[in-house]
Amino acid sequence: MERGFNDVNSRLDVVSGQLAYLYLLVQDSREKQENLGKAISNIHKAMLIKEITTLQAELEDLKRFPHESPRLALKTATNTRLFLSSQAMQSTPELEAELLLNSDVSIQGWAVATATEAHLLLQMGQHQEAKGMLREEVEKFKTVAHNWSNSLIKEGNSSLSTAYRFSASPFAEYITPERVTRIKDISPSDLSLNQDQVRRKKNEASVEFEMSYAQERYPKSWIQKQIAIAEYLDGLSELLARLESLEAFADLCESRNLKSSKEILPDENTPSGLYLLRAD
C-alpha cells in the first residue's frame, strides 16, 4: 500500500517535470503564464477527482453485490485517504480561486475517504483498527483546519484577527451566530478565550466598523471576501466535527462488542430521517 502511495506521488513528480518546459515557452507573456497555470491546476484537479471517483465506483460495486467481501473497497478507501491527505497537508492556505478549489477537493475527499474507511472497518468488526486510524486522521485534519483558520482569520488590524469579527454588524445579514461558533471551534487563538475576553473581542471589532474610516477601509469587496472566508471555514469545522463524531461511534461499537456496526444502524429500507442510538 505504501509503495502504491509512493508510486502516485512519483507520477505527480514526473508530470511536473514533463510540464516544466512549458514555462520556458510562455515566460515572455504574463497572460500565457496565467493560462498555463490554470491548465496545470485543472490537470491537478482532474487527478484528485479521479481518486475520489475510483472510490465511488468501488462503493457502487459493493452496493450492487452486498454479500461480497468489502476488502477491495477498503483497500481503495485507504489508498484514496493516503493520497488525498498528503495533498491536503501540502496545500498552502490562500484565497486564490484555482488553488483554493484544488485544496478544497483534497480536503473534502480526504474526509470522505476517512469516513468511508472507518465505516467499512466497523462493518467488519475491526474496532481497534478503525479507532486507531480515526485518531491519527482527526489529529491531522485538525492541524490542517487550524492552519487554514489561522491564515484566513489573520488581519492587518489586530482587533479583527478573530473569528468574532464575523459577529459584527456588517455581517449580520449573512453570517449566523451558530456559524461564528463553528468557526471559533477551529480558531486556536479564539478557543482559549474566556467570556470576558470574548466580549472584549466582539466590542473591539464592532468599534472598528463604526470608525469614520470604516467604509473606505472595509468596502463591499472586503465584506464579500470575509463572507466567503466564513463559509469556507464553517465547512472545515463541520467536516472536523463529523470525523470526531465518527470517533465516538467507533467507541460505541467497541463498547457493545458488535460483530458489525450494521447491527445498530438503520438498513437500506429504513425511511430517511434522524435516528438516535441508545447510550449504554
Distinctive features:
disordered N terminus, 280 residues, mainly alpha, single chain
Terminal CA distance: 37 Å
Overall form: elongated
Written as H for each helix and E for each strand, in order along the chain, the element string is HHHHHHHHHH
The proportion of strand residues reads: under 5%
Q: Please tally the helical runs, counting DSSP H or I stretches of 4 or more residues.
A: 10
- From the alpha carbons, calculate the radius of gyration and give it in angstroms: 22 Å
Could you name the ranges where pLDDT drops below 50 across 5 or more consecutive residues? 1-27
**Main beta sheet strand tally, sense and closure:** none
Overall mean pLDDT: 83
Counting helices, strands and paired strands, the structural category is mainly alpha
In total, the number of strands is 0
Q: State the helical fraction.
A: over 70%
